[in-house]
User: Fold these one by one.
Assistant:
Number 1:
Amino acid sequence: MLGLAVGVSAAALGQTFTVLHRFRGSPKDGEAPLGALLMDAAGNLYGTTLQGGKYSSCLPAGVGCGTVFKLDTNGMETILHNFDGSGGAESSATLIMDANGDLYGTTTYGGGDGCGTINSVGCGLVFKLSSDGKETVLHRFTGGADGAWPLAGLVMDANGVLYGTTNSGGTYQQGVVFKLVGKKETVLYAFTGGEDGAGPDAGTLLDANGNLYGTATYGGDINCLYPDPCGVVYKLVGRKETVLHAFKGSPDGMYPTAGLVMDAAGNLYSTTYDGGDGANGGTVFEVSQDRKERLLHTFGADGRKYDGDSPQGGVVFDPYGNLYGTTVYGGKGCCGTVFEITADGKEKILHSFCTTDCMDGAFPSGDLIIDANGNLYGTTSTGGANRNGTVFMITP
C-alpha cells in the first residue's frame, strides 16, 4: 500500500481520503490527468497527463504536451516520459504493462503533420515506453481509413496483440476499432454513425474468447436525439458488430463515454454521462449478453441534494459485488464525487471534492482502480495546490 505521508487525510462515511500527489504543471511535471491509474505488482502507480511536462511547442499557451508519470509506494513521483509532439501529445489513456515492464498507451494528438489538429501536430498515435524510458511509436494515425484521435487506452491479448479505438477517422469518419500486431494496424470495424454507433470515447474490453466489447458515445437509436442519437453498447466478434443496447435518453441514459467491466456471468457494467429518469445527471447500468438492460442508479433523481452528476469514467467491482466510480460534477462541493453502488442497489457518496478549498482535487473524470485490500485510487483533472490535478486514495 502507498505510504500516507503525502497529502492530507479526512474521514468521510468511515472512509479515509488521502491526497498522494498534487501536480505542479509545466515544466516540473504533468497537468490534468484524465485516465485511470495502473498499479504494478509492487504497488507503484502509473498514469498519463493531458498537459504539462517539458515541451510546450506542440500546443498553444505553453501548457505542455503531457507526460507519463510514476508514483512509488512512498508517494514519490518520477516523470518517465515527456511528450514532444512528434512522439505524441495530450494523452488521456490508461496505461497497460507487459510482462517485461514495458508500458503501452495512446496520445490523442501528435505523431505528424496535418489531420486538422492544433498546430497540425497529427492525428494521434500508439506508443510503447520501455522500462528504461525509451519511447517507440508503434502506429501514427493518418486520419484516413486507419482512424484518428484515440482517446482511450489499449488492451492486450495473450499473444501481445493490442486492441483499441479511435474517436474519429475510418471509412465513415465516425471512429474505428483496431488491432495492432507489432507495428501493423488492421481496422476491425469502422463505425458508420448510424444504428451501429459513432465516436467511441472509450476503449475495448476483451473476453476469454477474444471477443471485444465497448461503448460508442453517439449513434444508435434515431429516436433519441439530444441533438444526436444517444450511443450504444456493442460486441465485436471478429469483424461482426452486434449492438447489445441502444440508449434512449430517458430513463436509461445517454452518451456513454466510459468503458465496460464484466462480471463472471458475462454481464456488462458502466455509466452514461447524461440522461436518466431525473435531472439528466447520468446513470449506472448493466447490460446482459441477451441484450437486456438494467438501470442500477440514476444521478440526481428524486431530488437527492448531494448526489453526483455526470459520470465520465466507468465503474470497478470489489469482491462483494459493490461498484465504485466517480462523477465529474455534483456532491457537496459541486466539483465531483466518489460513489459506491452497493450490491443491494443503494448509493453511498464516499467523497465530495472541493467542500473547502479544492486542495483535494476537483472534477474527476477517469475510472477508479482497487487493490487487494479494497483501497481505491483515482485522479482529478484539476484542483490541488496548483489547480493542475491530483492523485488520491480512499481507504476502507
Note: Residues 297 and 365 are 18 Å apart (CA to CA).
Number 2:
Amino acid sequence: MLSTIFKWYRKDFVNYSRLHGLPNAENAVEYIRSIAPDSLARELSQAADYEVIYRDYDWSLNAAG
C-alpha cells in the first residue's frame, strides 16, 4: 500500500530517477525498489504478481506542526 502522493507525482519520481541514473524507475514500485535497502529491494524484485493500492491521503497531517 502506497501513499497517493506516488500516484499524484509519478512524473516527478520518474524524472528524479532518470536525472540521478536510478535504474528502471518507471513506476512507484520500481522507484521504491531503486532506493530501498537491499533486503526490501530483493523482496520487491521477487514479487512477480502484485497490485499497487494507494492509501487515501491524510490531509490532517498538513495541519500538524
Note: Residues 2-57 form one domain.
